[in-house]
Amino acid sequence: MRLLVLHGPNLNLLGQREPGLYGSSTLAAIDAALEQQAAALGVELTCFQSNHEGALVDRIQQAGGQAGSPASDGILINAAAYTHTSVAIRDALLAVALPFVEVHLSNTHAREPFRHRSLLADRALGVICGFGPTSYRLALEGLVAHLRASA
Description:
The chain is an alpha/beta fold.
């Protein structure tokens, strides 16, 4: 099983960016923990972060087997601010038709009203938010369980 983890804008600043909201874990620490968990589950994991919408769209298309890349079986995505604004990321996810789980470190529903709306949630297998880095672990477990049950 091959999975892609996508991290959107400003997540490269985790650990230093608003630690009261996002915690003290760095993105590298989150990725390392996910890779360890994936290995224990027997899953191949690729992590990718970009502050650029087009780079995220390109990586989603590659996960669908475009541009000679091996196809992924599913995606964990923390689109960050693009969750609320990016029709392009939504369209890319729909185009590749891979199951995906939307992930957020903070509880987006307990924040500013503009963060309550997700352009991805209605097509996601699930949305996990508010548990800090544990949100990623829960999302990975849920996606792997779904894919194994569907196999």
